[in-house]
Amino acid sequence: MTSAIRRAPGRLATLGCAALVATTLAGCGSVNSITGSGSSSSGPITLGTTDSIAVLDPAGAYDLGSWMILENTFQGLLRFPAGATTPVPDAAQSCQFTGADAMTYDCVLRQGLTFSNGHPLTAADVVFSINRMKQIKDVNGPSSLFDSVKSVEAKSDSEVVFHLSEADAVLPDKLASAAGSIVDHQVFPADHELPNSQLIGSGPFAIDSVDEASGNGGVKEISKISLSANAKYKGDQTVQNKKFDVRFYGKPDQLKTALDKGDVDLTDNSLDPNVSAQLLTNQQSGGKGDIHVTQTDSSDTRFLVFNTKDQTVGQQAVRQAVAQLIDRQALARDVYAHTVQPLYSVVPAGIAGHNTAFFDKYNDPDVTKAKQLLAAAKIPTPVKFSLTWSRARAQGAEGAELKKQLEASGLFQVTVNEESDWSNFKKGWADGSYQAYTVGWSADYPDPDDFVVPLVTSGGAFHNGFDDQQIDQKLVPETLHETDRSQAATTFGAIQTELAVQVPMVPLFQEKSFFAYHANITGVENTTDSTGVFRFGEIGRH
Fold it and tell me: Which of 84, 201, 226, 263 has a Cα-to-Cα distance from 505 of 20 to 30 A?
């Protein structure tokens, strides 16, 4: 996703120094001494981010920034607690599949739930929320996550039942994401979305105001969202503050300046990661300063993707030879200053079912083995192909490093091209214009399903032409019948092993996340995990 664009399902990850970062430690913002002391102890806690928001209505919201707000202002039937990848009840008292076929899902709601405006929250609101999303069917929204839902009924004010058209064992994960936000049927229209400033939810915070400012080309963009603790909230989440603001910045260096000046108390993972890494190094070496940094793993991933219908890279031996040569350790060290970690499968570390299929098959980079792969397939060398990129956190340095690694073998000649326009880039890979390209991926929920199914079935979100009948028609359906998700790990392992053989894409790395905050801010370490949920209520000030 872009940090501002999600796709269904999952998100295509792009970053630019509006989310792009430089490859030097100075990055987009220099690491200078910190003089700010944070905002007033009596004022709201202020979070700074470079994510942007277009739509907040859950029927159309499908980007990092909007989901961050929705996850704190709305309840779903389920939610992801801190440090866990299995959803637990939220607005629901209990939820379960009835029967062994994963075709019917029954939830009983908590008693006495209300929205922040005092309206009762009942099963009718849950039914309305799902049906409304599917009816509006915003092309940029998350409605496709619920394509498996044939119908949903309120059996009483407190019981709701989902009837599915096909087995969908990950429905609980989808309901626990921001796509499952429950809206007030007395406030939200059934056939169109509400303005951002009019949203009503039942989460731990309520939206007080949404400020806008003129952005590029005079287009209005959200500059600040003010929240307050919802006194009518009934749930298990902790709320350590009464007021919380989110401020939006165009570039990481602007956010860094705001942090230094004390205009924001903390940041999400929006700073130049190299700057964050340097701040962390300073902190670990005993350096003095007001800024602290918490580092955590992230499930965001990046891939080198092949057009499997291309005459050159469509040959499996060519893709295998590339996989045999890629040095992920060098990429993480020399290009990303250890702000990423090497990835050897499509499912990242920290997600159930993760394995190291690519390392198991190819081990360390080996020119001799790569040469043997090409020779056995009678493919003349050097193999020539082009690699296209658009938004990359390391800008052109990433493609340059991949080119260097492949050409050092003498087996490849790689032309690296930049497509500066993200829309054109997506169009280019969708219509098969590129031979190979680098793209990031950020899933909607922390289940291996959302790292596998969207990428490798029926052409996948990367539109690279890959399709495997065994994966599509046998292995994936098997996983969707496993309501005990640990039982699906073996099947996901088989899928990952097969992908390492066919190589429709080469996993490069997964991100690390860095959250910077002033010394008087507490709780940051409690809300940073691989789910991607930033829990405002955990943040306090001393």
Answer: 84
List, for residues 455-491, the tens digit of each pLDDT value.
888 778 888 999 999 999 999 999 999 988 889 999 9
* Bridge partners, residue 512, by sequence: 297
Contact 221, 213 (CB under 8 A): yes
Closest CA to 288 of 26, 517, 30, 34: 34
Task: Please choose, from the candidates 246, 226, 237, the residue with its C-alpha nearest in 3D space to the C-alpha of residue 202.
Answer: 237
- Quote the pLDDT of residue 41: 62
Token look-up 């192909």 returns 385
E strands in 193-316: 205-214, 220-229, 243-248, 266-267, 291-306
Which distant-in-sequence residues (6+ apart) come within 8 Å of 186 by Cβ?
119
Neighbours of 386 (CB within 10 A): 17
Query: For 412-433, how does the pLDDT look when each residue is reduced to its tens digit (9 = 90+)?
Result: 999 999 998 877 888 898 899 9
Instruction: Give the DSSP letter of residue 14.
Output: B
On whether the CB atoms of residues 228 and 527 are closer than 8 A, the answer is: no
CA 421 to chain centre: 21
- For the chain, give every domain's residue range: 300-511
Strands, DSSP E only, in 158-267?
159-164, 205-214, 220-229, 243-248, 266-267
Q: Are 110 and 93 in contact (CB under 8 A)?
A: yes
Q: Are 301 and 507 in contact (CB under 8 A)?
A: yes
Tokens 């005990």: give the residue: 484
**Which residue is it, tokens 């962390």?**
280
Query: What CATH homologous superfamily does 300-511 map to?
Result: Dipeptide-binding Protein; Domain 3 (3.10.105.10)
pLDDT tier for residue 24 given thresholds of 50, 70 and 90 = very low
Rounded distance between C-alpha atoms, residue 471 and residue 459, angstroms = 12
Is the separation of the CB atoms in 93 and 539 below 8 Å? no
What are the phi and psi torsion angles at 441 (to 5°)? -140, 135
